[in-house]
C-alpha cells in the first residue's frame, strides 16, 4: 500500500508516455486539459506522493528557511513569527523554527544542522551571535531588530518612534520626560529609542531623564524594578507632570498598574507611552503606544531573503542592505488632555 | 571554496582509509581517540559540510516534525509552541511550523508538502481538519487540545480544572456561579470545562449559569460581548456574590477591567477565575487562574510522537492514546477573603 508510485506506473495507468508524465510535473502548460485531467485523476487513484527530498539533492532548492528567535514569551516575537509564517501562502517557503533562549552553542549547532539540510536562508531575531559570525555562514541572511553591521536587516525606525513619543508628551505639556529602558548596547537598533528621545527633548529644551534597569525576562523582577523607579520619580519630581516612555508594552502595563495602585491621576500626573502595540490595548487604561508595522517587517524580511537567494547563483552578489520601516503612534487613554482614570 | 568535500578527500588528508572515515560517522566508538581527533581536525580544516538530505533519501529519517497551529495571537499557542521548540536540545527534532489561520485548503496543501519532504510526524493544535481526516495521512500524529477521536492526543484535564475553579468559588461562598465560554463543540476537550463546572455546582447544590458567546478572535468584539454579560449579571443577580469562571485569561482580564471601571468590589461582589495562566498575572489585580502544565503537555507530545515514529517500522503498530495532564489552580487577588481592589 505504501509502495512508491513511479512515473512508469502513472504512464501505464493513463496510457500516455513517460515523457508526458514528466511534462505534467515540469511543464504542465504544454499539455492539453484532457491529458492533464487524466494524469491528475491517476495521481489520486494511485495515491502518488511526490518526493521533494530527491529534488533538493538535484537542484539544491529546499524551499526551507530557518527562523532563529530568542523565545516566544514576548508578544513582539510571537507576532513577528506569526506574520513570517503566514507568508507561506505567497512565497511557499517552509519555515524551520528554533527558539534558542540565548544559548550560543546550541544556536550554532542548530544553524549548522540547518545548513546540512540545505536551508536556503536564515531570518534571525536572536542576538546571540554577532553579525560578523553570521556572515561567515555564507548563506542568505536577514536579521530583524538586532546588531546588523555585516548582514542585511529589517528594522523599525526606532528613532522616529521615540521622536513621535517625545513630541506627543511635550505637546501634552509634560514638565519632565522620562525614558525607561533595559541596558541596550549602542550598536543595537533599539538604542535609537534613547537617541531619538534625548534629541527631541534637547531640541525642545525639555528636561529629560534616561533610566536603565536590568529587567531580565521575569515579571516579578520587572515589577520590583519599576516600583523602585516609581518611588524615585515621586521623590524627584513630585509636583511635575511626568511623561514616561517605556521600551515595550509589557513594561508600560506594569508601570501603569503601579500608578493606579498608588492612586495617581492619569494622564494628569503621569502620561505613559509604550512600544510595540501588543498588550497595551488590554490594560486597565488602554495605553498609548508606538506600533511597529510588524506585517511589513515580516514581509520585507522574506522578500529581502528571496532576493538574496535568487541572486546567489548569479554573478552580481547582492549587497548588504538595511531596510527601515516607519512605526506609528497610536493614541489611547494614557496620554492626552482627556481625563481618564480607573476610579 | 564551496566544492564538496568527500570521504576520499578526508581519507587522503588524514592518511587513513575511507572505511575508517565512514566508521567515524557511523560507528565512532570503534575508533581510537587519536584517529577520531585526527579526523575531527581534518573536517574543520577542510571545511566539511555534512549533507543530511542524502541521508533522508537513504534511510527516510528526516528528523523533521511539522507543527500546525491556528495562529500565535493567543498566548496559549505561543507558549505551547515555545515549549515544543525547546525540546530540540533533548530530542534533536527540527520543527517545521505552520500557522494556518483556519484555512482548511491551505492547511491540507501544507501537510501534503510536508509529507513530500518526508517529515516523520505531525503535532497538531489547529482544529481545521477532523481527526478522521488526519488519520488518513497515515503518519505519526499527536494532537493537542482539539477533537481527537481517531488520533493520539495530549490534553489538559479540563474537567478537573473546572472542578477546582468551581470548588474554590463555592468555598469562597459565592451565591451564584457563572461560566463564560465561547461556543465549543461537545467533542472538543475544552467542553469538559463546562461539564466539570456544571457537575460540581450540581453536586454542591449551588445555582449555576453557563453563558456562551461568539467571541471571535477580536479584542473589541470580546469587550462588547463581555460588557453585555456584565450588564446582564448586574440586572439578574444584583444582590448576590457572583463567582465567574472564564475560559481563558484574556477574557478574564477584559472582564476584570470592566468590573473595575464600574467600581465593583473584588472579590467582595465578584470573584474571577481565568484559564491558562498566561496574562492573568499582569492584570491590574493579579487573576486567580487554572494553569495548564504547558511544559509537560509539550514534552509529552514530542515523546508520544517519538514512540510512534520508532514503532512505525516494527510489527506492533502503536495504539491510539489519549494522555491527560492535570492542571493546577493558582490563587491570586481576584478570589479569596482578602479584600483587594484597585482603588
From TrEMBL, chains A, B:
The keyword Ligase does not apply. Keywords: Coiled coil, DNA-binding, Repressor, Transcription, Transcription regulation. This is LacI family transcriptional regulator. It comes from Anaerostipes butyraticus. InterPro entries: HTH_LacI (IPR000843), LacI/GalR-like_sensor (IPR046335), Lambda_DNA-bd_dom_sf (IPR010982), Peripla_BP_I (IPR028082). It comes from the Bacteria. CDD domains: HTH_LacI. GO terms for molecular function: DNA-binding transcription factor activity; transcription cis-regulatory region binding. Residues 5-59 form the HTH lacI-type domain. The lineage of its organism: Bacteria, Bacillati, Bacillota, Clostridia, Lachnospirales. Residues 295-322 form a coiled coil.
Amino acid at each position: 500500500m505504501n509502495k512508491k508510485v513511479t512515473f512508469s506506473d502513472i504512464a501505464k495507468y493513463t496510457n500516455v508516455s513517460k515523457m508526458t508524465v514528466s511534462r505534467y510535473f515540469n511543464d504542465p502548460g504544454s499539455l492539453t486539459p484532457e491529458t492533464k485531467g487524466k494524469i491528475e485523476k491517476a495521481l489520486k487513484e494511485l495515491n502518488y506522493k511526490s518526493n521533494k527530498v530527491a529534488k533538493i539533492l538535484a537542484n539544491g532548492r529546499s524551499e526551507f528557511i530557518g527562523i532563529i528567535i530568542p523565545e516566544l514569551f514576548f508578544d513582539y516575537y510571537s507576532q513577528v513569527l506569526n506574520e513570517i509564517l503566514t507568508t507561506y501562502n505567497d512565497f511557499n517557503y517552509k519555515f524551520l523554527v528554533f527558539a534558542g533562549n540565548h544559548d550560543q552553542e546550541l544556536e550554532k549547532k542548530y544553524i549548522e544542522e540547518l545548513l546540512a539540510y540545505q536551508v536556503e536562508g536564515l531570518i534571525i531575531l536572536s542576538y546571540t551571535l554577532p553579525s560578523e559570525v553570521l556572515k561567515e555562514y555564507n548563506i542568505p541572511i536577514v536579521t530583524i531588530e538586532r546588531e546588523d553591521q555585516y548582514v542585511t536587516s529589517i528594522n523599525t525606525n526606532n528613532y522616529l518612534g521615540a521622536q513621535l513619543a517625545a513630541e506627543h508628551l511635550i505637546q501634552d505639556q509634560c514638565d519632565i520626560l522620562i525614558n525607561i529602558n533595559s541596558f541596550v548596547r549602542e550598536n543595537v537598533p533599539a538604542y535609537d529609542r534613547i537617541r531619538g528621545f534625548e534629541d527631541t527633548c534637547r531640541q525642545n529644551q525639555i528636561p529629560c531623564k534616561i533610566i536603565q534597569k536590568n529587567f531580565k525576562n521575569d515579571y516579578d523582577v520587572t515589577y520590583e524594578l519599576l516600583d523602585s523607579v516609581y518611588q524615585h520619580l515621586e521623590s524627584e519630581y513630585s509636583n511635575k507632570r511626568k511623561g514616561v516612555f517605556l521600551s515595550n508594552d509589557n513594561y508600560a502595563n506594569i508601570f501603569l498598574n503601579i500608578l493606579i495602585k498608588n492612586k495617581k491621576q492619569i494622564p494628569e500626573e503621569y502620561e505613559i507611552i509604550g512600544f510595540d502595540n501588543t498588550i497595551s490595548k488590554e490594560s486597565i487604561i488602554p495605553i498609548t503606544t508606538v506600533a511597529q508595522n510588524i506585517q511589513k517587517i515580516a514581509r520585507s524580511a522574506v522578500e529581502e531573503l528571496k532576493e538574496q537567494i535568487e541572486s546567489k547563483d548569479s554573478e552580481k552578489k547582492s549587497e548588504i542592505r538595511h531596510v527601515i520601516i516607519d512605526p506609528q503612534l497610536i493614541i489611547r487613554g494614557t496620554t492626552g488632555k482627556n481625563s481618564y482614570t480607573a476610579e
